[in-house]
Amino acid sequence: xxxxxxxxxxxxxxxxxxxxxxxxxxxxxxxxxxxxxxxxxxxxxxxxxxxxxxxxxxxxxxxxxxxxxxxxxxxxxxxxxxxxxxxxxxxxxxxxxxxxxxxxxxxxxxxxxxxxxxxxxxxxxxxxxxxxxxxxxxxxxxxxxxxxxxxxxxxxxxxxxxxxxxxxxxxxxxxxxxxxxxxxxxxxxxxxxxxxxxxxxxxxxxxxxxxxxxxxxxxxxxxxxxxxxxxxxxxxxxxxxxxxxxxxxxxxxxxxxxxxxxxxxxxxxxxxxxxxxxxxxxxxxxxxxxxxxxxxxxxxxxxxxxxxxxxxxxxxxxxxxxxxxxxxxxxxxxxxxxxxx
Length: 341
Hints:
Elements: H1 3-24, H2 31-48, H3 58-65, H4 68-80, H5 88-107, H6 115-139, H7 147-174, H8 179-184, H9 187-202, H10 230-243, H11 253-260, H12 264-275, H13 280-296, H14 306-312, H15 318-329, H16 333-338
Helix pairs in contact: 1-2, 1-9, 2-3, 2-4, 3-5, 4-5, 4-6, 4-7, 5-6, 6-7, 7-9, 10-12, 13-14
């Protein structure tokens, strides 16, 4: 192999090893840590593919590397979506991108009529998974209260996602089989892995990996943090109780900041570090669910439709209300009301 390629792969592997060592320091491995570990395993397969070319282990490495887009999507979703749950359909999509090319290689179907099913379709799905990654990350941008995570979205998904998109597009469509690409495609991963490790070292608690917080209501739990304006926190709580701005559908953090006449970044800090919420939607829903729960168990309102209560509390739809209520109370609103009236 060319010297430059060897150096890039060796450096990248050292960064993967460092990432895994940092991961191993986590006291508990939740879903996020497991997905990161699988992503790093897929990256190892990508890095070793040219090293193992011609050996019996090449097919193992090439199979692992096909999981990179899918694992990047799932890991990004687990980082930026506070309510992320791994679904069977998500696992199925990633398995399809990995197992179909493997089956095609084992059956020797390259270049035959079924090439589109075993190779072209999985490659197209990889682009879709990268697009889903951008959608998941941008979807929660406005409501994210963790300032460091807001900044992380820009480079983590922007740089890594763009690189994966450009790599797949160049390798499969623009420059298939080009020898220069086989070397230069391994330079950016070395820099990206270095950036990931710098992030892990700087933000190793509560950013990529979420530290387990003590039990108790997030609305009443204070998180110690320098720079929190206690007077703003108290003023915010008083405003929420007196004016009930949470009843307004589609209320944004910018609108709430205008009502309080404070900059958005100070309000985000107050809600996140002062009250313990990681996103604005959960903060609003804590008031909305409390209001809805009180009305659902009120004997005088037993005939009032659940939808009416949901709309009065500020929810856009019955489905969003049901989802938020079940997350908070462990039951659907209808079941919860029936058990208490």
